[in-house]
């Protein structure tokens, strides 16, 4: 039997770094959402494990036990052929590999061990808006957000996560408000978001100056910001994101640009 899975891009609409533990893990406070943009997986049960890959970012994807898909399958006690269409760029701050692993766990079980695959895997399991705090292990559902469309842009630059965290000038920053307000409209929600931050954006810009150019290109968005540790940036729109993405592709044919709706 063949089944299909979808691994949506994870977007940090805000990411506050609030401290660092003695073991070196950073403490975060982040509002995480997911987009109708992502990788696609096909699962076919078989006696032996096999991964095949195609798609625009297939190059460099390991097809053995190094891949989180393989490791998630082991946790789920499932074997078979996984075909991955890799649409999301690597090391891009949008949780591509974690989302792939979460798609396996959603299909075959093993949720209770998701954190063993990485800090972003648990938040990717539900693919719904959540507040992620602690080291990524404390997840709190949030009320449905206003309907929004999103453009994701990556200038095809990989930014090592360690480099970005090590470049943080201040690691003790204020969290988001303890209680979120009710967001009645897209405009009101984005106005609230503008008062939040991505504390990793400054060191990421230093490591990859192209991020500044991407954010400038998203000047028609209600809000533009970097996601995660970069280098992918997002722009939020009430509507018209696909048309705007087409315009930006003509101006920047060397960038990866995708558009879709936010999942609620």
Write the layout of secondary structure elements.
Blueprint (H helix, E strand, L loop, with lengths): L1 E19 L5 E20 L4 E5 L13 H9 L3 E6 L10 H13 L12 H6 L3 E5 L3 E4 L7 E6 L6 H6 L19 H9 L6 H7 L2 H8 L5 E4 L6 E5 L3 H11 L4 E6 L3
Parallel strand pairs: 3-4
Antiparallel strand pairs: 1-2, 2-4, 2-5, 5-6, 7-9, 7-10, 8-9
Brief summary of the model shown:
The chain is α+β, with helices and mostly antiparallel strands. It contains eight helices and ten strands. The chain has helices at 68-76, 96-108, 121-126, 161-166, 186-194, 201-207, 210-217, 241-251, and strands at 2-20, 26-45, 50-54, 80-85, 130-134, 138-141, 149-154, 223-226, 233-237, 256-261.
Describe this structure as you would to a colleague.
It is a single chain. The protein is of the alpha+beta class and 264 residues long. It folds into two domains: 2-141, Ribosomal Protein S5, domain 2 (2-Layer Sandwich), CATH 3.30.230; 149-261, GHMP kinase, C-terminal domain (Alpha-Beta Plaits, 2-Layer Sandwich), CATH 3.30.70. The chain has eight helices and ten strands. The strands form two sheets. Strands 1, 2, 3, 4, 5 and 6 form a six-stranded mixed sheet that branches. Strand 5 (130-134) and strand 6 (138-141) form a beta hairpin. The protein is globular and about 50 Å long.
């Amino acid at each position: 039997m063949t089944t299909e899975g979808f691994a949506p891009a994870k977007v940090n609409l805000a990411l506050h770094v609030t401290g660092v533990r003695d073991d070196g893990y950073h403490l975060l406070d982040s509002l995480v959402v997911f987009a109708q943009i992502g990788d696609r997986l096909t699962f076919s049960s078989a006696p032996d494990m096999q991964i095949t890959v195609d798609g625009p970012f297939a190059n460099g994807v390991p097809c053995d036990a190094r891949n989180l898909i393989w490791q998630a399958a082991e946790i789920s006690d499932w074997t078979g052929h996984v075909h991955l269409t890799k649409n999301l760029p690597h090391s891009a701050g949008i949780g591509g590999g974690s989302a792939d692993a979460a798609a396996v766990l959603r299909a075959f079980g093993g949720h209770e061990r998701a954190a063993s695959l990485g800090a972003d895997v648990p938040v990717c399991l539900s693919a719904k808006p959540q507040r992620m705090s602690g080291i990524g292990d404390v997840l709190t559902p949030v009320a449905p957000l206003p309907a929004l469309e999103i453009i994701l842009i990556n200038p095809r630059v990989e930014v090592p996560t360690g480099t970005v965290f090590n470049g943080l000038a201040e690691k003790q920053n204020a969290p988001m408000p303890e209680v979120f307000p009710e967001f009645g409209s897209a405009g009101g929600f984005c106005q609230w978001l503008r008062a939040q931050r991505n504390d990793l954006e400054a060191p990421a810009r230093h490591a990859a100056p192209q991020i500044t150019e991407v954010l400038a290109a998203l000047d028609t968005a209600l809000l533009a910001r970097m996601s995660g540790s970069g280098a992918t940036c997002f722009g939020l729109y009430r509507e018209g994101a696909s048309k705007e993405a087409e315009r930006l592709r003509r101006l920047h044919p060397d960038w990866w640009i995708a558009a879709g709706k936010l999942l609620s």
